[in-house]
Amino acid sequence: MFQNLSLWLFILCFYLVNTGFKAETQDKIDKRQLYIVYMGDAAGKYNVEASENHHNLLSKVIGDESKAREVRIYSYGKNIDGFVARLLPHEAEMLSRDEGVVSVFKNTQRQLHTTRSWDFLGMVESKYKRSEAVESNIIVGVLDTGIYIDSPSFDDKGFGPPPAKWKGKCVTGHNLTRCNNKVIGAKYYHLKIPNYNDSAADYDGHGTHVSSTLAGVAVSDANLFGLANGTARGGVPSARIAAYKVCWAEGCSAMDMLAAFDEAISDGVDLISISIGGSSLPFFDDPIAIGAFHAMKRGILTTCSAGNNGPGLFTVSNLAPWVMTVAANSVDRKFETVVKLGNGLTATGISVNGFTPKKKMYPLTSGLLASNVTDGDYGEPNACQYGTMAEDKVMGKIVYCDVGSEEVGGSSEGQDQIVRSLKGAGVIVQLLEPIDMATSTLIPGSYVFFEDGTKISDYINSTKNPQAVIFKTRTSKMVAPSIASFSARGPQRISPNILKPDISAPGLNILAAYSKIATVTVYAEDTLFSIMSGTSMACPHAAAAAAYVKSFHPDWSPAAIKSALMTTSTPMRTKDIEAELSYGSGQINPRRAIHPGLVYDITESAYLSFLCKEGYNSTSIGLLLGGSNETKKEYRCVDHKQGLGSDGLNYPSMHKQVGSTGTNVSEIFYRTVRSVGYGPSTYVAKVWAPKGVRVEVEPRVMSFVKPGEEKHFKVVINGVMEENLRGILSASVEWDDSRGHLVRSPILLFQAGR
Predict the structure, then answer these.
(1) Cα(41)–Cα(156) distance, integer angstroms
(2) Contact 147, 186 (CB under 8 A)
(3) Strand 426-430 relative to strand 398-401, pairing
(4) CA–CA dist 115, 317 (Å, integer)
(5) Which of 167, 312, 403, 421 sits in a 20 to 30 Å window from 614, CA-based?
(6) What is the CB neighbour count within 10 angstroms for residue 501?
């Protein structure tokens, strides 16, 4: 009996110990999170060697070889050295202390920065100079939601085979069964949740819109619901497209973006466009900054969207100086949707409403009058919130909602969708603040300004039989360019003395190709084009401009191309109080940019010296250089000359965040320019500065004997930050050779707390 009892006790103890161990193990698994371990440049290594190094490093930290194999998800190794693994916090900390590791950071989700525009930029079809043979050899890589290959914007008629330099692939799959000689590559990255139905097909429409804006072929009679009719085309219609799908329903993960960068660089792309962003991060923790740095090392310029969190200050994203950060500006066309009331009053709102009214008038009510809410219930019927209105009070009527949300039109809980679900005939939404972005509505709809909304509400409450009609949207002219209200503003927090955004481009109400497997409205399942707004739309305009410049100057560095676009840009016609904090150097002017006269170039070594000045440690910077263990030399910041002046970098713009106390300012900027014109030239400096501020350029005259010659100058600023400047001192220096070359650099000093 005692023997049996002992046996049962032994079994019980064994069970408890093992189940406890399993529970502890499961607990650790549950606490494991995805981290990216970034180890610098992969030059001189092979994929197999890199993968083995990653496994050995992980095994050393975890202490279990099989567990290390289990938790490692992916290894980078073509251009970027690093890997993705499910780690416990202490393991991530141990890895971050390894001398071969630059940084360890969590895999975060980032978000998309979601015809007439090229004409507005002066690139009227058939009337601007193009080098089509060279342009056809340019490959643009687009990191986005994928691509709809069957769009007419990607027709490859007349295109020859892909350029010989192309090393990428067309990974076919669900709803993407081919590529062609226009879209020569398509890949997708979904490392966290791989699915056999995954493909590079675009179920969102964003990636197709961006790609066609950048490099779509000309398509005549392009429109949405008959609006914005014309010829839709990209800025470089002869260029080839390589699509890299990194964004899914849950967002765009850091590890997927880094994998796409790693492969795109090796595939042979010439430029990268990425309309994605998120919160500001140190450069070595930012997947876009990391990927763009390695692209820059291989001569590839990365163009990024500035973000859509404007108009507040300190909202700009994608801050690295080696990327071109693009704000969104308007074109000279706006969309108006007129509402007419039964008493004859009209109100002009904004939307993309493709519905033609079938009646002269419709019954009109308000969310409050259609309410089914009783005392104690939650929700605000006056704002037409979900569940607050009765179907029998809405059916067949236009509904007025007296407070518009910040996210208007077509959202999952937008008033248009709610009213439609109750069989309403249309929706009028009052806006708390004016907006400039027109969005498609699921039913006839218009978003009206606050004062007009108040008049509509008064009318509804003044008569027993209120009526209204919502007319189809029309287009009209407007003064442009001006910065879109949503476009993110500087200054930035990571490198305070680099002005971001760099430049602006059309991003407001842009018509471009759309995916037929994504719908604009439930009544438009077969639409081939859509109107979208965001810095996401501005980014491909600037990327196309960069490709256009590169087609004339294939040997120019990324920094030289960026400089050409910045120094030849067009100042805003309508300026806001944030000045260059909202638009950088101004709106892109591609035709001028191919002949900039002078360029501010920046080498890789100059960027490394800049990182030293910014406080990044020598060991981490050394890993960016890459090379094998045998050839790699130790990098020490003290052995390299750091950049001089207030910012320490040869940037085309000049910026400084000055102290929050005191009113006197004194700054100095050192610059070097290279002549890229024809023959001898002489440039004279012209300065603009506000009253009370002195800007001196030394020397004021620069003479160049031949192209390729470099000259140095400095800009000295002294003065007083007057109260009326509101903490923003805006000035400029422009070099003029009297032969058509105007090389302009904005100067902006920002004082927080003023």
Answers:
(1) 36
(2) yes
(3) parallel
(4) 27
(5) 312
(6) 34
Give the residue from 21, 436, 511 showing the smallest Cα distance to 233: 511
- Express each pLDDT in 332-385 by its tens digit: 778 899 999 999 999 999 988 888 999 999 999 999 999 998 765 678 899 999
Which of 157-166, 429-438, 597-606 is the least confident region?
429-438
| 249 vs 145: CA distance, rounded Å | 9
User: Tokens at residue 684, please?
Assistant: 């004279």
Amino acid occupying residue 522: V
Cα end-to-end span (Å), the chain:
87
CA dist., res. 616 & res. 603, Å (int):
18
pLDDT digits (tens, 9 = 90+) for 572-593: 766 677 889 999 999 999 999 9
Spatial distance between the Cα atoms of 100 and 96, rounded to a whole number of angstroms: 9
- Nearest of 238, 217, 214 to residue 135 by alpha carbon: 238
Q: How do residues 692-719 score in pLDDT, each as one tens digit?
A: 899 999 999 999 999 999 999 999 999 8
Q: How far is CA 303 from the centre of its chain?
A: 8
Q: What backbone phi and psi angles, to 5 degrees, belong to 17?
A: -60, -45
* DSSP 3-state of 345: coil
**pLDDT above 70 as % of the chain:** 86
Taking the complete model, does pTM exceed 0.85, yes or no? yes
Strands (E), 438-559: 445-448, 467-470, 474-477, 503-506, 510-513, 529-532
Structural tokens at position 551: 């087609």
The vertex-565 CA angle with 647 and 284, nearest 5°, equals 45
SS3 at position 224: strand
Q: List all residues 6 or more positions away from 267 whose beta carbon is below 8 Å from its beta carbon.
A: 139, 141, 166, 167, 168, 169, 185, 242
Q: What is the Cα–Cα distance from 702 to 735, expressed in whole angstroms?
A: 9
- CA diameter of the chain: 110
Using a 10 angstrom Cβ sphere, with 0-12 exposed, 13-18 middle and 19 or more buried, the burial of residue 602 is: buried
Query: What gap in Å lies between CA 117 and CA 545, rounded to an integer?
Result: 12
Is-contact 416 328, C-beta < 8 A?
no
For residues 493 and 471, the answer to whether their CB atoms sit within 8 Å is no
Q: What are phi and psi of 747, to 5 degrees?
A: -120, 130
**What is d(CA 359, CA 338) in angstroms, rounded to the nearest whole number?**
15
27: pLDDT confidence band, cut at 50, 70 and 90? very low
Name the one residue in this structure whose structure tokens are 């010829």: 231
Contact criterion met (CB below 8 Å) for 330 and 484: yes
486 with 408: CB under 8 angstroms?
A: no
* Residues with active-site annotation: 144, 206, 536
CB 624 within 8 A of CB 41: yes
Residue 60: enclosing H or E segment and its boundaries? helix 47-62
Cis upstream peptide for 481 (omega within 30°): yes
Burial of 5 (0-12, 13-18, 19+ CB in 10 A): exposed
368 three-class SS:
coil
